[in-house]
C-alpha cells in the first residue's frame, strides 16, 4: 500500500505491507477485481495491479497493470517472503502450480 495520495509517483512514495488502511471489504473488492483482470488478459506468472481507491465511496480505478516482474514485485516478495521471481520463472517454463 502506497501511503501517499494519488499524484505522487509510486517510486517516490512510502510503501507498507501488509496494507494498513484497507477494510476487509475493500481488500476483497480489489482482490476479486485483480483475479478478474488477470483472467481476462490470460496472465500466466507474476502481475501487479495498481489501484486508486476512494475510501469514502469505494470507487476505484485501475491505474496500471504490469504483467511482468517489477520493482513492486521485489518489494512484495521481500515483504511476504514469497519467491515471486522463482515461481514466475517456473510458470513460464510450463511447471503447473501445486
UniProtKB/TrEMBL annotation:
Entry EC number(s): 6.3.4.16
The UniProt entry, under InterPro entries, shows: ATP-grasp (IPR011761), CPAse_ATP-bd (IPR005479), CPSase_dom (IPR005483)
Task: Give this protein's Gene Ontology molecular function annotations.
Answer: aspartate carbamoyltransferase activity; ATP binding; carbamoyl-phosphate synthase (ammonia) activity; carbamoyl-phosphate synthase (glutamine-hydrolyzing) activity; dihydroorotase activity; metal ion binding
Q: What Gene Ontology cellular component terms go with this record?
A: cytosol
What SUPFAM superfamilies does the database record attribute to this sequence?
Glutathione synthetase ATP-binding domain-like
Q: Which reaction does it catalyse?
A: hydrogencarbonate + NH4(+) + 2 ATP = carbamoyl phosphate + 2 ADP + phosphate + 2 H(+)
Q: ATP-grasp domain: from which residue to which, for each copy?
A: 30-93
- UniProt entry tagged with the keyword Phosphoprotein: no
Q: Which domain of life is it from?
A: Eukaryota
Q: Which UniProt keywords apply?
A: ATP-binding, Ligase, Nucleotide-binding
The answer to whether UniProt assigns keyword Nucleotide-binding to this entry is yes
Task: Please provide the Gene Ontology terms (biological process) for this protein.
Answer: 'de novo' pyrimidine nucleobase biosynthetic process; citrulline biosynthetic process; glutamine metabolic process; UTP biosynthetic process
The protein depicted here goes by the name carbamoyl-phosphate synthase (ammonia)
